[in-house]
Amino acid sequence: KLEFDVNMTCGGCEAKVRQSLQQLGVRDMTIDVGKQIVVVETDIPFTKVQEAIRSTGKIAVLKGFGSSTGSAPGVAAAVSEISGRSGIMGVVRFSQAAEGACIIDGVIDGLQQGHTHRLRIHELGDLSNGCESTGDVYDPEPTGTNHRRPKRYGSLGEIDVDEHGRSVFRRTNDVVKVWDIIGRSLVVCSQNPSQAQRGDVDSCARLACGIIARASGVAQNPKRICACDGVSVWDERDPPGAKKKLNCRLLMNLSLDGKCLHGNLLALSGVLPDEYHEFFHRGGCVTAFKSV
């Protein structure tokens, strides 16, 4: 499920949004004009659903995804905002489905077509030295101890890149559990054609990364005003006095034992592609695993 705040004010707005989503192929949707909420259940990537709503001229802000119920309420969804060299930028979301599979849904820009790009969960959420300090690929069960498992836990596979350097993907993973990866990091790495042909996975160069943080599930985030700057969800793309650049504040504090970092994702503002202007993560907390 995907939950959007949409600035609808009348029945005509609802009709336009419904028609646009139906044309995209969405059949299961709930639209509440009074609460200005649209909830859809679909396997279409969130970016395409968001674009369909915005094509009606309305603002659509993704504020919850996954499920509001489940085997582990409150930790059934996570998000990673990744960035790296040469302007690589992306948002990847993880949602624990009721049947046990993890849904991985994301969009990444700035990649180089023709290279092989892999998505991996790394064991540490330590970005003090960029992606190089995130440790190895996360695997609670070391390779070789389970011969029935063909790859490491954190190896999420390859992602396709279009001619514009963008990758949009949605996939399911039967191994990953959201509550096991919060506080770790998500890394995008790249191999040139010759490296990929040799099958040398360890030669994958780390391009971009981000900490995996807890995120809101459906109906878990009623906020429409950010407590840190007073900007509403409808105005956050152009808040008063905002500079025309990314301004993402991540406040970090060492825990008492010094073994991890604890931070609050406080604000995201500036000029970015629409997919990155999300509201649900404001005020969310992340505990990042850090080497000692």
Automatic annotation (TrEMBL):
Xref: InterPro entries: HMA_dom, HMA_dom_sf, SOD-like_Cu/Zn_dom_sf, SOD_Cu/Zn_/chaperone, SOD_Cu_Zn_dom
Cofactor(s) for this UniProt protein: Cu(2+)
One annotated GO biological process: superoxide metabolic process
Residue span, HMA domain: 1-61
Database matches in CDD domains: HMA
A Pfam family recorded for this sequence: Sod_Cu
GO molecular-function terms, A-Z: copper ion binding
The family this protein is said to belong to: In the C-terminal section; belongs to the Cu-Zn superoxide dismutase family.
Protein known as: Superoxide dismutase copper chaperone
